[in-house]
From TrEMBL:
Annotated organism of origin: Fagus sylvatica
A GO MF label: RNA-DNA hybrid ribonuclease activity
Protein name per UniProt: RNase H type-1 domain-containing protein
Ranges for domain RNase H type-1: 42-161
Pfam (any one): RVT_3
Length: 183
């Protein structure tokens, strides 16, 4: 089944996190680079229409987040921006958590802004875009957009926290401690 975009209410510029419609989930992701270690990490935060945290993850992105996750982005190919990997990881995390209708919001990243049809090109970046496009097709509904960092603060804080730990971390139906006063 081909994914279809999720309709969002239209209006003026958004200056705060906007919850998704009922029966849809918001997947916010962000990357953080620790300047001392040169390590990239990603933070992924999945919330429902009531703003409740269903899942979160911190992931190390130095090559490779209803949950929160911190993930180290490790082993990405040279010349490929860690945002490619972080976006792929956010989509895979949502799939693993069985969310079928999602709105994905992350940092501004030009290659994702142009992703309308299945990409086909000779570069490594084109291959990563194709991977993102293929993953999107696995959802019943999915849309990608970029949001300013001040609105994506929860995912950014998870990504930053991920730089302080050695292994990926996942929270399910629990607000990570560092986000309790932020969300």
């Amino acid at each position: 089944m081909v994914a279809t975009p999720v309709d969002l209410p239209h209006g003026g510029p958004v200056m705060a996190w906007v919850p998704p419609p009922m029966n849809c989930y918001k997947v916010n992701w962000e990357v953080y680079k620790d300047l001392a270690t040169k390590m990239w990490t990603a933070g992924i935060l999945i919330r429902d229409h009531g703003g409740h945290v269903l899942a979160a993850q911190c992931v190390h992105v130095h090559g490779h987040v209803l949950a929160a996750q911190c993930v180290h982005v490790q082993y990405h190919p040279r010349g490929v921006h860690p945002k490619f990997y972080a976006c792929v990881h956010a989509l895979m995390f949502a799939l693993e958590m069985s969310f079928a209708e999602i709105i994905v919001e992350g940092p501004t990243f030009q290659p994702l802004e142009t992703l309308k049809n299945r990409p086909s090109g000779p570069t490594i970046g084109d291959s990563w875009l194709e991977e993102i496009w293929v993953l999107i097709q696995k959802f019943r509904r999915c849309s990608l957009s970029s949001i300013p960092p001040e609105i994506n603060k929860g995912a950014w804080m998870l990504a930053k926290f991920g730089s302080t730990i050695k292994e990926s971390r996942i929270w399910i139906e629990e607000v990570p401690v560092m986000l309790q006063d932020v969300l």
